[in-house]
Amino acid sequence: MPAPRKSSDRYRSMAHYFGALIRDLRDSYESRVGEPLTMSHLAARTGYSASMIGQIERGETLPESGARVESLDDALHAGGQLKTLWPLVQRLGHRPLEELAATTKRINPGYRENAPCALAGGDDMERRHLFQLAGWGLLAQSPIFTNGEHIRQMLERSLGTAEGRALDHWEAVCADHTHALLAQPATEALDDLLVDLAILQQQMSIATPEQSARLQRIAAWMSTMHANLLTRLGEYGPARRWWRTARQAADASHDADMRVWVRGAEAVFGLYSPRPVETVLTLARDAQTLAAGRTTPGLLQAVGAEAQALAVMGRRQEARESVRHLHDLVDRSSPDGQVGWSSDCTWFVSSWVYSFEGATESGREARDKTLAQSPAYQNAANVRLHEAISVASSGGHNEALRLVTQLLADLDPAYRSRMITHTARRVLDTVPSDRRAALPALPDYRAALNAPTST
């Protein structure tokens, strides 16, 4: 077996580092797994040509998707190393690490002090330090690096005042992130959330047994928000994995209400992903069973998801019954203001169900009440798309497509999330397939759906 090769170029950029890591994993495959792995073998297992594998290993090109990275990770028995590093590689790519080191000097003028490099080992050691930061999870998004977040965290550790020591602090952090979900574009909200997830992970690693349960509850809450944001960005595979993490954290916390809330939220967001609607219905009903008769925000989310899934499936009477059940639960429990539920949510679910059945007046009332009460740009855009669904369900196919086209054109690209475009695509689903090609509004509708966003 050849010894793992070293390259003087591996610290030139994240692309070069990523390629060198793949090469090291391939070279060490025989000692780790028990059989050799040639470049041709790796190519056959991943669907690449051998020449393309060579280009990736040399850092000349990058895999074109997360799915490709996952196949490389699996084929190399990398244990998730490539998948973990991939978000950073995507964002920094071939950007020279000298530029990142220079950014560090600008952020903290004393970084190099009076010597050529404050880190022993010179420039190469400085670049290695960047990868150490990446290993801490503090460079998962480039804004975290460029705004000096990693320096702030190291400073707090040096001072012994590292953020998150007080458990009550995390409740306020989660409340802030919840507000950000309602008001900010997904990419902006994600940057700050990733910073706090990294800090939380550090605190959990040193927590006492008494602290662990509360921190696990916070981990479930923050993981749910992360899965929420990934769904908005159309990162459905990573979102599913974060939902799993959220469930596991909630279960470990032994907080019954959090366990239901995570599962209810997963059912809701499943409606905006490629998951089969039958799976969403199962998730929603499993969450209701877990609630064991307790009326909590999680139960309300689960009942709402059930009603919406039934509406998509065309099971109108059952969907109506679920909506009535939801209103009864809300009337009896007065959940407004509790974490995970607000008054506009009830009317949002009603708007969805009534729109799919073409109930014009009931749908309009529900939309108006949602818009009057909703603080979230997601809900505001989506209920306007519910109107288009209602119009299409009533036979106004061309008009419905025009409504969607106009709404998407008016929406700032930063706020045009995949959840919104997913609902926009449901409008066309309500049009019989044999009538679509003849609709004059179809080309503009498709162009609006495929317009670039800033997310």
Describe the structure.
The protein is mainly α and 455 residues long.
Fold blueprint:
Blueprint: H1 14-27, H2 29-33, H3 39-46, H4 50-57, H5 66-75, H6 81-92, H7 97-107, H8 122-135, H9 142-146, H10 149-159, H11 167-183, H12 186-205, H13 209-232, H14 236-253, H15 256-270, H16 277-291, H17 297-312, H18 316-333, H19 343-356, H20 360-373, H21 377-393, H22 397-410, H23 418-429, H24 433-436, H25 442-449
Name the features:
455 residues, mainly alpha, globular
- Shape summary: globular
Strand content: under 5%
Uncertain segments are 103-130, 132-148
Strands, total number: 0
Helicity range: over 70%
Termini gap = 45 Å
Report the biggest beta sheet as strand number plus sense, adding barrel if it closes.
none
Structural class: mainly alpha
Radius of gyration: 25 Å
Question: Roughly what is the average pLDDT, rounded to an integer?
Answer: 83
- Total helices: the number is 25
Q: Helices and strands, in N-to-C order?
A: HHHHHHHHHHHHHHHHHHHHHHHHH
Short description:
The protein is mainly α. Helices cover about 70% and strands about 0% of the residues.
